Amino acid sequence: MTFHILTAELIQECSTFNKGRTGLEEYRVEILETGDAAIAKRRLGRSELKGFLDIADAEGWRVTHALSATATPGPIVTREAFEELARIITDAAEAHKHDINGILLAMHGAMGAEGFEDPEGELLTRLRKIVGPDLPIAITLDLHSNTTPEMAAAANVAVSYKTYPHVDHVETAAHAASLLKEMMAGRVKGRTLRLKLPMLDEANGGRSDVAPTMAYYSRAIAFETEPGILAVSVNSGFADADILEAGPSVLVSYNCHVAGAATRAAEIAQKLGQSMWNDRESCVNNFLSVPQTVAFIRDFKPAGPGPLVISDFSDNPGAGAYGDATNLLAGMLDMGLSNAAFGPMIDADAAAALNGAAVGETVTLAVGGKNDPRYGGGPLMLTGEIRHLSQDGILVGDGPVIGGITFRFGQTAVFRVNGIDILIVTERGQAYDLQQFKAFGITPETLSVLGLKSQQHFRAAFEPISAEVIVCDCGALASPDYVSRDYAKVRRPIWPLDEIEGMPELCMG
């Protein structure tokens, strides 16, 4: 039998602490396409849609692709934008509800929208109302998802990434598609169980390159080999969203046709959840202040080739921070470094002003710190030389995270100040691919010091070429100092905001 499936991608992570809003234009920067146009752009890169299509093509399925919409993490989505994106997907489901055999939907799991703390759960609920209770729905999630009861109730199968840096988009989607195949054939009846922890974040933010966190994913993969266990997803949560369901969770999708699978799924969730709770203070990152970072740079004696790479952790655009904090850059500039680079600094005004001049000119202008100087520092008045200009900032990634995917920074400039090449860009985006610098004349491998606005994704491409990596908390919007934030909507009590005596009761549902 030839199956007909509906596919869609709607992916964004939203910080409720960012005072801006995400509209359709922010999606267009990455991708906002429907049907064959979306397939043409996404099937060759490391995307979820490629994973869906790899299985669909191998099985000879007919595919109706509704939408591919992805945006760089940022502020919550406008109500108008969410309704339009959701409408495209639900209209496709309505049009094909009598002839599709299943749905594959790639989401993030930590999206936010005006009027909806859980827009993804809302979308899934709308889809379920259209197609009825029996049509199989399989979803993929980022492991930083803030999962909700609505997501678990509407999705027969949920599969989250098991890597951070995220390098398994395709594999995660192929896993979900393979399970959809079994459900459409009637061999499997999927159901998803959810366990929620009284925590804001997993100790290491879901890093898959450090113990004990990496052990969770290894255990999850082993559990997936057991009879009746379809997918085990360990989600570290997204603490930059002040919502009721923020925080870590475990999802276990199981086969209702297998006796005892539901009981075993609950046991697995409990075991993994208990481990996350027990390890809650086992953070591997050593967060340095800006003065400590400057001192480290000054004393650094490399043991091998490559730059000292500095993560400007708390100003990560990939966590919804503004990406224009200046405290770390100011510290580096004061040192009189040479052969150094820093970026991407998101400052549309500065990028436009520099693009109005010419390569080789000396220019004085304000850089960074314009969104909210309270978080990571205000504008710096800098004089420097323009080294490179680009009107569109387009590049094609070649690393593990965005390999084969076209990325656009918009107007871009390389501005050399006191021996530091500052990559100044217009559109939001974190550092996770060497081409984000090489495309504009900066060769990371040859630098002495490189400051990157990224928390973890940079490690996939930049750690292999580094002499050493350190992590700086410059006090920007995505600071790991959760206790200093003004949370109003998260569940209480919750760690680390509250002391929780004894062993908490882990919440199923």
From TrEMBL:
Matching Pfam families: DUF1485, MlrC_C
Protein source organism: Pseudorhodobacter turbinis
Q: Name any cofactors this protein relies on.
A: Zn(2+)
Alphabetic keyword roster: Hydrolase, Metal-binding, Metalloprotease, Protease
Similarity section: Belongs to the peptidase M81 family.
InterPro entries (UniProt xref): MlrC (IPR009197), MlrC_C (IPR010799), MlrC_N (IPR015995)
Per its record, how is this protein called by name?
Microcystinase C
As for what it does, the entry says: Involved in peptidolytic degradation of cyclic heptapeptide hepatotoxin microcystin (MC).
